[in-house]
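> tool_call: predict_assembly(chains=two)
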Amino acid sequence: MTANPPDSDELSRLASGWLEQWGDALFQYAMNAVRKRDVAEDLLQETLLAAIRSHDRFQQASSVKTWLFSILRHKIYDYFRSKQRKDRRTDSSAEVDKLTTFDKHGHWIEAVGRWPNRPEQSLEKSEFWQIFDRCCEKLNESLAVPFRLREVEQMEFEEICEMLQLTATNLSVRLHRARLGLRKCLEENWFVP
Amino acid sequence: MKRWLANIHLILTLKCEESSRLVSAGFDRQLSWSEWLAMRLHVSICRSCRRFRRQVTMLQQAIRSRFESNAATEKLSTEGKQRILDGVRAKLR
């Protein structure tokens, strides 16, 4: 004798309860990773759906909250992975970045400029971060995503390789180009008038 | 022996492109002794690479403190919650 499967109203009440209790925490977690409200909301929605669909298999070994967070983390990884794939198909500007930074002898084409003595003072200013965000957006996604995961999320290098299915060399190249590109963009738009 | 010569070659002939690559890699993994030495020697005589290293270090610290002190605090709006629940309901049917 088995219990009747819960109907969809019951399931949405379940989702609504989770959202009430942990919605803000989950949303902030997603926002920290993706920084876009609509994307964070979508990820949260997918998380709830996945949780509902598998909640009968969920064992009370860990708390519901931990379980929801682990689903969300996987959804965030999927999101970044699919962004990477799209980008790989459409763009090859990573190669261009390389060509315009160094000459054929491996020397800087443009010397690296001097930044103010106490740049950390500039870093307090919110305009700096606006420019920083714009510069990040200008980076090709294939560079921006690994950079964000590494520097903002502070994920381990090997973990990023696994998540984005990149070799260590490939990830290293991307992070290098991201740092070069970001530094240059900041110099052009902020540090040197 | 061959490997040893390759290390010496790296130290003596490092170009800016390689040096900046090693500076960047140094943020993500432990450099080998020859890579580290080659990078440090190059940086000590090359102003652009020295600046690159300093600036990227500074940026890294700034980004970390920004996101630690300024982690997203936005709350889910009432409309946002509603949108999410509507989506869930629609997909459950």
